[in-house]
Design brief:
By secondary structure, the chain is mainly β. Among the domains are: about 150 residues, Jelly Rolls (Sandwich), CATH 2.60.120.260; about 90 residues, Jelly Rolls, CATH 2.60.120; about 150 residues, Jelly Rolls; about 90 residues, no CATH class; about 160 residues, Jelly Rolls; about 180 residues, Sandwich (Jelly Rolls), CATH 2.60.120.200. The chain is built from eleven helices and 84 strands. Strand 45 and strand 46 form a beta hairpin. The radius of gyration is 42 Å and the shape is elongated. The termini are far apart. Belongs to the neurexin family. It comes from Astyanax mexicanus (Blind cave fish). This is Contactin associated protein like 3.
Length: about 1200
């Protein structure tokens, strides 16, 4: 028994590689042909390199784009290079040309460089030689050169040489039923390398090329299907075939194509022409014996003459007399376009005009007469797939038949207006008119018909989707001249789906103003790792929280040595994603706990361990949280504080109590415990500091250098910068001719320039505001085979399309310069941060540490990001980033954005207390006493949000030692009342809002501002976001005050209690509710009754970047706020000058006992060391300096007095 290979339905051959001998110089003149010649001495036979015979070369009669020079190499030859010269001693030379090859002298194929470049650059004078080594050798007998451009002061003149060697091969021809069977015996030992190579050409688009099986039933089949080559595998005789790979396209073009299957160390390289895929395939042997079937060892050549309609101006006109009673027409075509006119002709006897065209990839026939459609027929579908399709039209005895690919259709007669047709771009062949084949060679020779813009005797169709330039799973579609990438549901965007639409870290989302929630994270940007949905915990730092499937307690059963209990932890990220996130994280932590009760873990001190855990690399470990590797201990063993000192782990003491044991971090694989309870929270990773990786360039001559940037087909570059300079080069990388550069050309313009061989190319973005404002600005540039784009901040970007048939590979070879340039242009002066090239972050800081005149890091971020701190939050500078200090804000959260709310029930109250002035007065001077006697109340700022269905209700009450007070309440109609009493001998003033009933269960925001005798009240309904009322009332001032009882109305409301929600309460710079909820132990607050934080005051603003607008997970680390509130401060320029108001008592839901306090603040009040430490450093980047309305801190020596 052995293996065999079955081959059929192709011409195949083997070949030798490597040759460079001259092929043309020894040929006779009869081997040369041309479209025309200027004279006998200018004939094609004189077109030999470095020869001066005749007129010194070939020149055609007319210098136009339809001329050609053809060489018959007399046998199939491997061509590896070509060289050209102009005509000797003349002004005639060719500056660019096309190179064609063929086996038959017909059906030419154009040689393309880089799959897109068709034209070769020619000569610049008559004598110099320009040589091109072909990237891929050509196997052909005939060679043809088509001049495209020539010396404008002369005419076409050409001498030519080709290099290569004789092509020797064994050829077999298959007719569709014949085959060759190879059988062989396995070699004595396994071979290190197996190689199968062949060349094939086919006129049919489908058929089995090779089928291989071994003695175990494993099978491999290579199948040509619709012009593409598929590799199918089957495992065992009972298995089904599945497709492993697909390569190539348009392989039925009757030209030779190379295929190979090479096995190396278990991997297989599958190659079609110059495209290769690496696969994992079964091993096959390479020793063959041949059994001959019905095979011809010659390769029959089909002679078909196609033509190409390459441009919108292309047309072919043929003589044809069309009668109404008898018509016969057929042709074959192939195209990528969904529409286009195939043919039109006037019918005899004024019967109308016949139109046959493609519409929505279907054949449509219409006969127009007198401006109306009298016949309308459709046939076929999906005819724009690039394959050859046939169209047949026949009219016999009044019956009209239209067939696409031999399928008949019925006739539908319609009426309507004449349609407009798009032009056809594609290939045609085998045109028959009334049963006669049109001789297209005579058309080319201008003997019959007329044409313009046609490529004769070749089909120039190109599959721009094979190989596909669409990345990351983007779907490629194409037309005749271009391709398109559908990036839907890929997570990537751009012309080739190259750039990720998501951020690379939670830190990046945080600094776009996003709060905690679920976000898609693409850790490697445009790299191969897919985006992952991850929970971002935006606290003082941005944490990435990766979930797994075993966060609940899992009870484990006892197991024997053979039946182990396996606890699996499957993370939401796959292995590659998790590995990439961990490798980029600044810090990673994970904690899994094992609760044991009479369940030995390590069996210490002398026994074999019962449990171990497996790390990421698959190795087993027997140490646990807090212990060192290979110690076979738990943390208590190293700390010598285990319950039973005879053991190194509490679980090993056979104790009758539950003891938790922590697993070590970095556990993406499961441990194997014997018995107990296991649970594990998510893995937490601190976002990478790549976002803040920066360097400061303090001289225009300073720069950093890195290895060459490799972005041959796709390149994306992104970074942030800030500068005061008006211009400078951000980065530059050079090649021999190619280059790439991004620069600030002026304060309002950024330029992205490069050259891939088509000449310098520039994309410019101009901004309405200057960019040299010492703020961070973001630049993102991308270049791919279709276009180049540049974006700066959120300004409109610029896009430039790449040439349709130009060079596409960016070839660089020098070092990458950052902040400077090797081309002696002006370097950059300022900071560059978070520089990423194709998703990889360059470590600017590490390189800057060893580079003179460049400093690592770049402080000063509040100037750019301080606006993210909301609701009076203060931006605080950090080395890597910034933080929002919410101390002076009633809000909390990363950006002081989170409402601090609580729901109250009757019996719940919060009192915020100021210090009694008498302690201050004991040591005060007479001057301070006089100031105290002259104190008057100047004004207040009060804001709060509430939600209730109760009316009447007391919301806020502020009282002074002298019986002055402020009360905010809802009256019995649900209207808002603000009651002021500033003189004890006068009645209270009441401001009543005309807003609708506010006791409607909706969230309302109230702002009260009094300055001297002017009072303004603002009421806003959050759900409707409309200002319902805004009024002002003038109050009279008061001098002096007398003590007395609480206002009876206030006391009555106080006794009723309050049921509802209160949120973001602020009195001047005091946030009493926030102090009571978040910092009750360090704030002068008294809480009566139950009080817990609630989200009842949240307005639920959605995030434009989050995957979900809300999330139920709580923050895992620390508190939401980044700073504690100023809990005992008074504004230095507020209305509370001298402290006329003695008590601020915040009452919600009936505070029955109202305590009055009085604060006397001297001008020279002192601050605590903590408050001094919290003061920001003087920095030009800090936009939030000390607020002039902020209040000074009272010392801890001040005491509290009660009335």
């Amino acid at each position: 028994s052995g293996s065999f290979i079955y081959m059929s339905n192709l011409c195949s051959s083997l070949f030798l590689e490597g040759c460079d001998g001259p092929l043309v110089s020894s040929l006779p003149q009869s081997a040369f042909r041309s479209s025309s010649q200027l004279s006998n001495s200018h004939g094609p036979g004189y077109a030999k390199l470095n020869r001066r015979d005749g007129a010194g070369g070939w020149s055609p009669l007319d210098s136009n784009k339809y001329q050609w020079l053809e060489i018959d190499l007399e046998q199939r030859t491997e061509i590896t290079a070509v060289a050209t010269q102009g005509r000797y001693g003349s002004s005639d030379w060719v500056t660019s040309y096309l190179l064609m090859f063929s086996d038959t002298g017909h059906n030419w194929r154009q040689y393309r460089q880089e799959d897109s470049i068709g034209a070769f650059s020619g000569n610049t004078n008559a004598d110099s030689v320009v040589t091109y080594k072909l990237q891929q050798p050509v196997f052909a007998q005939f060679l043809r050169v088509l001049p495209l451009d020539w010396n404008p002061n002369g005419r076409v003149g050409l001498r030519l040489e080709a290099y290569g060697c004789q092509y020797k091969s064994d050829v077999a021809s298959f007719d569709g039923t014949s085959y060759l069977l190879f059988s062989f015996d396995p070699p004595p030992g396994p071979s290190a390398k197996d190689l199968l190579t062949a060349n094939f050409k086919s006129v049919h688009h489908s058929g089995i090329l090779i089928h291989m099986e071994d003695q175990h039933g494993h099978a491999l089949t290579m199948e040509l299907l619709k012009g593409k080559l598929f590799l199918h595998l089957r495992k065992g005789t009972a298995g089904d075939f599945h497709t492993t790979a697909s390569l190539g396209s348009l392989l039925d073009d009757q030209h030779w194509h190379h295929i190979s299957i090479e096995r190396l160390r278990g991997h297989v390289n599958f190659t079609v022409d110059k495209n290769t895929q690496r696969l994992q395939l079964p091993e096959h042997q390479s020793h063959f014996q041949i059994n001959q079937g019905n095979v011809s060892f010659t390769c029959a050549e089909a002679v078909e003459v196609p033509l190409t309609f390459a441009s919108p101006d292309s047309f072919l006109q043929l003589p044809w007399a069309v009668s109404r009673d008898s018509v016969s027409l057929s042709l074959q075509f192939r195209t990528w376009n969904r529409g286009g006119l195939l043919m039109t002709s006037e019918l005899q006897h004024q019967a109308g005009t016949l139109w046959i065209y493609l519409s929505d990839a279907r054949i449509r026939l219409q006969i127009h007469k007198a401006g109306r459609i009298v016949v309308d027929i459709t046939a076929g579908s999906a005819l724009n797939d690039g394959q050859w399709h046939s169209v047949e039209l026949s009219v016999r005895r009044g019956r009209l038949i239209l067939a696409a690919d031999k399928a008949d259709t019925s006739t539908t007669t319609t009426s309507g207006c004449r349609n407009l047709f798009s032009v056809f771009q594609g290939c045609m062949r085998l045109i028959h008119l009334d049963g006669s084949l049109v001789d297209l060679i005579k058309v080319q020779q201008m003997l019959i018909g007329n044409f313009s813009g046609l490529q004769m005797d070749l089909c120039g169709i190109v599959d721009r989707c094979s190989p596909s330039h669409c990345e990351h799973g983007g779907k490629c579609t194409q037309s005749w001249s271009t391709f398109h990438c559908n990036c839907s549901n890929t997570g990537y965007g751009g012309a080739t789906c190259h750039s990720s639409v998501y951020e690379a870290s939670c830190e990046a989302y945080k600094h776009r103003g996003n709060t905690s929630g679920l976000y898609y994270i693409d850790v490697d940007g445009s790299g191969p790792i897919k985006p992952q949905l991850i929970y971002c915990n935006m606290s003082d730092k941005a944490w990435m929280v990766i979930q797994h499937n075993n966060t609940e307690l899992t009870k484990l059963r006892a197991s024997s040595g053979t039946n182990q209990h396996l606890a699996y932890f499957n993370y939401s990220a796959d292995t590659k994603q998790l590995g990439a996130i961990i490798s980029r994280a600044e810090h990673c932590e994970q904690e899994l706990s094992y609760h044991c009760k009479k369940s030995r873990l390590l069996n210490t001190p002398d026994g074999a361990p019962f449990t171990w855990w497996v790390g990421r690399s698959g190795e087993a470990h027997t140490y646990w949280g807090g212990a060192v590797p290979d110690s076979q201990q738990c943390a208590c063993g190293l700390q010598e504080d285990c319950v039973d000192p005879e053991h190194f782990c509490n679980c090993d003491g056979d104790l009758d109590d539950w003891y938790p044991t922590l697993y070590p971090p970095y556990l993406p694989y499961p441990p194997y415990p014997p018995k107990g309870i296991l649970n594990g929270p998510s893995e937490h990773l601190l976002s990478s500091d790549d976002f803040w990786n920066a360097a400061y360039f303090n001289k225009e001559t300073s720069y950093l250098h890195f290895p060459t940037f490799h972005g041959e087909l796709s390149a994306d570059i992104s970074f942030l910068f800030k500068t005061r300079s008006s211009s400078g080069v951000f980065l530059e990388n050079l090649g021999i001719k190619d280059f790439i550069r991004i620069e600030l050309s002026s304060p309002t313009e950024v330029i992205f320039s490069f050259d891939v061989g088509n000449g310098p190319f520039e994309v410019r973005v101009e901004t309405p505001e200057p960019l040299n404002d010492e703020r961070w600005h973001r630049v993102k540039a991308e270049r791919n085979v279709k276009e180049a784009s540049l974006h700066v901040d959120n300004y409109p970007g610029a896009v430039q399309k790449a040439p349709a048939d130009g060079h596409i590979h960016l070839q660089l070879n020098s070092q990458l310069f950052v902040g400077g340039t090797a081309s002696r242009q002006k370097g950059f002066l300022g900071c560059i941060r978070s520089l990423k090239l194709n998703g990889k972050t360059l470590d600017l800081e590490e390189r800057a540490k060893i580079t003179p005149e460049v400093r690592p890091g770049c402080p000063g971020h509040c100037r750019s990001y301080g606006g993210l701190c909301q609701n009076r939050g203060r931006c605080v500078e950090k080395y890597n980033g910034f933080a929002c200090d919410c101390g002076a804000s009633p809000y909390s959260g990363t950006f002081c954005h989170k409402e601090v709310s609580a729901y109250f029930r009757p019996g719940t109250s919060v009192a915020y207390t100021f210090k009694e002035p008498y302690e201050l007065n004991r040591n005060s001077s007479s001057q301070s006493s006089s100031i105290y006697s002259d104190l008057t109340l100047k004004g207040e700022n009060v804001s709060l949000s509430f939600r209730t269905g109760q009316a009447p209700a007391l919301l806020l009450y502020v009282s002074s030692y002298y019986r002055e007070y402020l009360a905010v309440l809802l009256n019995r109609n649900g209207h808002l009342d603000v009651k002021y009493k500033l003189q004890s001998n006068r009645d209270a003033e009441v401001f009543r809002s005309n807003a609708r009933n506010l006791a409607n269960g909706q969230l309302h925001q109230v702002s009260i501002r009094r300055v001297s005798e002017s009072l303004s009240v603002q009421v806003r309904c959050t759900l409707h976001t409309l200002y319902e009322d805004m009024k002002a009332v003038f109050l009279t001032g008061a001098e002096g005050a007398e003590s007395g009882e609480m206002d009876p109305e206030i006391a009555r409301l106080n006794a009723l209690g309050f049921t509802g929600c209160l949120s973001v309460v602020q009195f001047n710079s005091i946030a009493p509710l926030k102090a009571a909820l978040l910092y009750p132990d360090t704030s002068p607050v008294i809480v009566t009754g139950p009080l817990t934080e609630s989200n009842c005051g949240s307005s639920s603003s959605s995030s434009p970047y989050a995957a979900e607008t809300t999330h139920s997970l709580s923050d895992h680390f620390g508190t939401v706020g980044t700073g504690q509130p100023v809990v005992n401060a008074i504004s230095s320029d507020s209305a509370l000058i001298g402290g006329v108001i003695a008590v601020v008592i915040f009452v919600i839901l009936a505070a029955l006992a109202v305590m009055a306090r009085f604060l006397y603040r001297r001008k020279e009040t002192c601050q605590t060391p903590e408050s001094k430490g919290a003061k920001p450093d003087d920095s030009p980047e800090t936009p939030f300096n000390t607020d002039p309305t902020s209040q000074s801190i009272i010392t801890d020596t001040q005491k509290e007095y009660f009335i």
